[in-house]
From TrEMBL:
GO molecular function, one term: protein methyltransferase activity
Entry-linked SUPFAM superfamilies: S-adenosyl-L-methionine-dependent methyltransferases (SSF53335)
InterPro entries: Methyltransf_16, SAM-dependent_MTases_sf
One Pfam family of this chain: Methyltransf_16
Descriptive protein name: Protein N-lysine methyltransferase METTL21A-like
Entry-linked PANTHER family: HEPATOCELLULAR CARCINOMA-ASSOCIATED ANTIGEN, OS04G0645500 PROTEIN
Gene name of this polypeptide: LOC109011457
């Protein structure tokens, strides 16, 4: 287990990364136990946007270690809900407590495609902002993710959905699958590399990252700008 001190918006977030959390079926380590570079990119990016977090509610899907959601709380969000599968929740809770954000940040178990949160605190509500990092990895999971996004955005016309990911061969397939579910996909920024972020990505890494906005089906958008994504 390691502890990382990550600088965001001039402040420090403490993130505990766990090495002993494994899938009960395969025995493999759950990759959500540590901070991925796309989470660093998303956290840096939202801290530079002209988005008023005051009195806003924020949801992070597939939160892993919870860095982007904790960043939203640090930036003034009224309520943040970090969600992931059950085995990762103790790590999320520890990171919330390590940063003294228990008054504004909740941790809930949530499996994409489920109709309800399994948390005793009840269903997920509609949110002002939804955050995701590195969730475009499996096209078979995309339908479940689309169902979840439609549910948490509800009937709101102003929910913002931001996602960061490392650009991989299957990224376009996942985004296009979301487009077939009625979502607009707009690339907001791309070509990230270590020099673009204030946090310490590996210096020798030349991986590229992109930030996307997903427009829920019930929101109006520019059809051409939100056309199926095919940059790969």
């Amino acid at each position: 287990m390691g502890v990382r001190e990550i600088q965001v918006a001039g402040k420090t977030l403490t993130i505990h990364e766990l090495e002993d959390v494994c899938d009960s079926v395969t025995g493999r380590a759950l990759t959500g136990s540590w901070v991925w570079d796309s989470a660093l990119v998303l956290s840096d990016w939202i801290a530079t946007q002209n988005f008023d977090f005051h009195e806003k509610t924020v949801l992070e899907l597939g939160a892993g270690a919870g860095l982007p959601g904790l960043t939203a709380a640090l930036l003034g969000a009224r309520r943040v809900v970090l969600t992931d599968i059950g085995p990762l929740l103790p790590g999320l809770i520890r990171n919330v407590e390590a940063n003294g954000l228990q008054d504004r940040v909740e941790v809930k178990e949530y499996v994409w495609g489920s109709d309800k949160s399994t948390s005793q605190s009840g269903d997920l509500d509609e949110f002002n902002l939804v955050l995701m990092s590195d969730v475009f990895f499996d096209t078979e999971e995309t339908a479940a993710l689309a169902k979840t996004l439609k549910r948490v955005c509800g009937e709101r016309k102003d929910t913002v959905v931001w996602a960061a990911c490392e650009v991989r061969p299957w990224t376009a397939e996942c985004l296009n699958a979301l487009a077939t579910q009625g979502f607009g996909v707009i690339e907001l920024s791309s070509q990230f590399n270590p020099s673009n972020t204030s946090n310490s990505l590996e210096e020798e890494s030349f991986d590229m990252f992109a930030i996307f906005q997903l427009i829920p089906p019930n929101q109006e958008t520019d059809v051409e700008a939100a056309a199926p994504y095919s940059f790969l």
